Amino acid sequence: MKKTKRILAVLGIILLITMYASTLIFALIDHSASLGLLKASIACTIFVPVLLYAYTLFYRLLHRNDEDM
Questions:
Q1: How many domains does the chain have?
Q2: Residue 42 CB partners (closer than 8 Å, separation 6+)
Q3: Angle formed at CA 22 by CA 15 and CA 40, multiple of 5 degrees
Q4: What pTM did the predictor assign?
């Protein structure tokens, strides 16, 4: 279980870094579609970590008696 958690944590870090990098790139690009992409990237940068935190919180609440955690 620890190995799975570690792999998922690394994937989450890679996802966050990719989202932050894409936000920076979309902010610097001077293209007609870049404003929409920038807005979507900022929204994902905010909503994805919040949703991941909420999923983790609900999982802990539902499985608080498990000894594996």
A1: 1
A2: 23
A3: 90
A4: 0.67
